[in-house]
Amino acid sequence: MNQDWQGALVRRLLLLLAGCLLIGLITGEYAWALALGLGGYLAWTIRQIRRLQQWLKRDQPDDPPPDSHGIWGEIFDSLYQLQRRDIHLRGQLQSVIDRVQGSTAALKDAVIMLDSDANLEWWNPAAERLLGLKKPQDSGHAITNLVRHPSFKEYFESGRHDDPLELPSPVSDRLWLQITITRYGNSEYLMVVRDITRLHQLEQMRKDFVANVSHELRTPLTVITGYLETMLEHSEEQSPQWTRALQQMNQQADRMQHLLNDLLLLAKLEATDPPTSAKPVNVSALLESIRSDALALSADQHSISFDVDASLQLRGRESELRSAFSNLLFNAVKYSPPGGQIYLRWWRDEYGAHLAVQDSGIGIESKHLPRLTERFYRVDSSRASSTGGTGLGLAIVKHVLLRHQGRLDIQSTLGKGSVFTCSFPRSRTE
Ligand code: ADP
């Protein structure tokens, strides 16, 4: 084809040249004849360009290109084929887009596409039901102006979207939503919103159940412990077997009391709002008092050394911090053999404030570390009864830290000891 038009072009130019030469031969004016011939060729070329431009301007893809031959015929045909191919591809793309939009429209979950400035670009009908978005007036508006829950704004602007956010729907307080945000393409956002009302209700029922059972069990347990203590006070009147049985019953009742207290504390941590505008807590004094309790628990069998920045205070709720820190220190005592060294450090750096509790105890195998903060998770359940643990200590630590925007890191080597480090952001320090 390429060869064809090149040959035709050369033939046509040779013919033109021959014609000009012939006219020159007849008239004797070679230069004029040549100028006339080339001028004619130029005029014809300009006419083809004009026809091409008019055809392109019409912008009617089904209109065939103007008839022409030679190189111009080739150009018209190639352009026409390109245009047809483009129309075909566009059709295919549109049908894919239609199918994607059709399937996302049928989704029960809301799918929302935002541009890199978090303005709404596209959303499916479920987003209108769950978040109350309105087409077309909300298009182009910032999502944080439309979903005005403070936790959403904070979550969105934090840029940390690894974990989903749960919050009540702006449409109705009875509707609970779980929001997941993913960045894609040129830093655009894809937001997926699920209705988790049923899950939330079940979770609420679980929390209420645990809190109610723990609360209801407290009174009978107090009565039982009271009687056990009275009976133990008069143990000289009983046989040694009975005394031993009573002592064991008292021990187990004590354990149960601790368990109920821990369950109630966890329920309270889950049910109340985190301490946002809390007062500064004198952590140094708090640690000193926890250390005395830990020494009492250890019966002075362990050495607890201290390296504390006394000027460093933490904004938070003192009672919660006391529970978390004492759980860590008491664990260090419980899981270190007599004579063990425990090292407590409270310091600040450019990231914030940190508390490290290091022990030279039995240590933990690395496979257990990710699950340690789960409720009732124990490395060795037979060990638990001997230490009197409830299995809730680290779950409480995790909850308290979460409520203070803190983080727990655990490093441990079996047989050598462990380091539990709590880290708090700079915004919490004083
Ligand atoms: P518990 O009441 O059983 O101590 P925790 O939630 O406080 O429950 O701890 C969970 C488990 O983690 C414990 O059963 C224990 O096996 C392990 N553990 C916690 N702290 C330490 C530590 N300092 N050294 C070794 N093991 C520990």
TrEMBL record:
A biological-process GO annotation:
phosphate ion transport
Which compartment or compartments is the protein found in? Cell membrane
Start and end residues of each PAS domain: 89-151
Q: Which InterPro entries match?
A: BphY/WalK/GraS-like, HATPase_C_sf, HATPase_dom, His_kinase_dom, HisK_dim/P_dom, HisK_dim/P_sf, PAS, PAS-like_dom_sf
Q: Where is the Histidine kinase domain?
A: 212-428
The superkingdom listed in its UniProt entry is: Bacteria
Going by the UniProt record, its keywords in alphabetical order are: ATP-binding, Cell membrane, Kinase, Membrane, Nucleotide-binding, Phosphate transport, Phosphoprotein, Transferase, Transmembrane, Transmembrane helix, Transport, Two-component regulatory system
Q: Which GO terms describe its molecular function?
A: ATP binding; phosphoprotein phosphatase activity; phosphorelay sensor kinase activity
Gene Ontology CC annotation, any one: plasma membrane
Look up the EC number in the record and give it. Answer: 2.7.13.3
Pfam families given in the database record? HATPase_c, HisKA, PAS_9, PhoR
Purpose? Member of the two-component regulatory system PhoR/PhoB involved in the phosphate regulon genes expression. PhoR may function as a membrane-associated protein kinase that phosphorylates PhoB in response to environmental signals.
The name on file for this protein is: Phosphate regulon sensor protein PhoR
Q: Which gene encodes it?
A: phoR
